Amino acid sequence: MPNNPLSFRPERKSEVEKSHRTKPSTAHRVGHGLRSVYLDNAAATPLDAKVLKAMLPYFSSIAANPSSLHSAGQAANKAVTQARKSIAEIINGHADEIIFTSGGTESDNLAINGIISVIPISNSVIPAKAGIQNPMDPRIRKDDKRESLPHVVTTAIEHHAILELLTRLQKNGAIDLTVIKPQKNGVVKVDDIMSAVNDRTVLVSVMYANNEIGTIQPIGDIGRAILKYRAAKRGTLYEVRGTFPLFHSDACQAAGYLDLNVEKLHVDLLTLNGGKIYGPKGIGLLFVRRGVKLSPTVIGGGQERGLRSGTENVPGIVGMAKALELVQKNHEKESKRLAQFRDRLIKGLLRIPKSRLNGDPAERLPNNVNISFMDIEGEAAMLYLDAKGISCSTGSACASTSLDPSHVILALGMSYEAAHGSLRFSLGHDTIRSDIDYVIKVMPGIVEMLRKISPVTLDMSHF
Amino acid sequence: MTKPTNSPDITPRKNSDGGFYSDVVKDHFFHPKNFMEDESAYKADGQGVVGSPACGDVMRVWIKVDPKTERLTDCRWKTFGCASAIAATSMMSTMVIENNGMTLEQARQIRPQDIMERLGGLPARKIHCSVLGDKALRSAINDYYRKSGQIDKIEIEQGRVIDKVLKITDHDIEEAVLEGADTLDKIQSKTKVGTGDPSCIPEVEQLMKFYKEKYFG
Known about the structure:
The complex is a heterodimer. Helix content of chain A is 36%, strand content 12%. By secondary structure, chain A is α/β, with parallel strands linked by helices. In chain A, the strands form three sheets. In chain A, strands 2-8-7-6-5-3-4 form a seven-stranded mixed sheet, with helices on both faces. Chain A has a four-stranded antiparallel sheet with strand order 9-10-13-12. The longest helix of chain A has 21 residues, at 71-91. Chain B folds into two domains: 23-153, Sufe protein. Chain: A; 161-216, Arc Repressor Mutant, subunit A. Chain B is 41% helix and 15% strand.
């Protein structure tokens, strides 16, 4: 409707400043005559050209099965071994502690299912009652059932790969579950975690950095507290499980920006994946500390120490190792660069009336901006941004398959309204300063337009 | 409750065939028609509202009525909601005033399915968005009848209790169908209907059939 002054016009290339086009074009920047600003790097990152180069030989010229004993197979095997070694070095672990999987979700599932199913039933029914050591003791009442289940502690802002699985296990009566809420700033308190840990706790799982609001959790501190707890527990009635609780952390979002030294994080299990660190999708890994017993979730030919059978994804493994090497080598410099852009974007967007930052301003990933705009709905805003060539995400219910708004933003104690109006911009290697300025320029008009057609005017004092 | 999500992350945007919204939806979303620009200067003969911001959708509808013909001469709206919610209200406002406007009786008969058809379809999980627009319109029509003293013409939409134990109404069944429940099992897992009062199950099945027909043809 050309006569409608509010009518929305997508940005054309002619409006794009020249400097931007001097940047070499990569696949994700290709638009349809639109300026293309990709700010959804927490969802997926483009493959780094160096990673692709490292992977290419393993698609065709070195394509044999690493389990084959002929020299072609051994060439592939060598690549996998080398990748494993290189990753182990980066995270300060051992090569035999790296289990390759198909991605973050599978690694999380392997960690949880692997632990829960390895706990013998007889161990898991030791009641929390002193003096009873035999699980078949007739003094054990049915009421003790919940109290005799293996116990897991996690947080309310975990990825679905953790929360959905744990909730399901709880519903099936396989575990007793405690879900810890973060503070209002999205950071979980070590004390809150530790006060939920008890003698039955077999696993604590806390993500390193949140995928929606980017908040960084004190993993090293939690890890240390768990070590202390375990040390104090040894020699008690529960000696049989003296090494519990185990500590798992999902570091998929953190890997590009934070230190992954498992000795400093004190984790027993660590999830990483390729698709968020400029590596290939469909590859991930689980670090499993020596001495930790897991039960396999994929059963077959016995690859990956029998924990994850299936012919190795050799190009993926090579790409994963290369990607991790590259992001970890540059993470301090890149973090510094992006943190400036992040703060610039936050500052620019918060100038829009009735907007609010979700998550702590400082304890957050350098590439994450998550802001709620009141009175408008996130999916609509996201699509208006898309028409201007900007890719981002929303925590709005409308954009999710479940029609539930973001569990992360709700867990901060924010309202449903705030969750519906939330947008996440996640910066990446290709982000340049003018991208940020472009978003800051475009956003106010979009918010204004959507507020004009919105019947809602919420009182900010509620938020 | 609801099972998320096949999503690796916050936003699974595209469905399998690549495009999520039809061109008509996009047109009404990016160029909304007939929305209310200035409420204070507008003299409405009736207005209605449905939804709440916490649920993610609110729609407000204003209408003008020719008292002689009882036809709609204007329909304005405001919507808080996603692309399909905005597009559906915009399309509805177009439909009720085109060709000299619908009579109030005709406008009352508008079904979500009609709006969806004109929009060239909506993704299945977005259908409930378009349902709200017609509810707001019917509420505006009632408001007109109230204001013009034709109390007998007001039709209040009320839920009828189906499961007396759990106080589950026909609206609950309707909602469940709209959310994609197409078998008795799925309706029960959403609403628990019939678990307290199994005698109502045949009626639930009838309603399910009715609403499936109504919304999904």
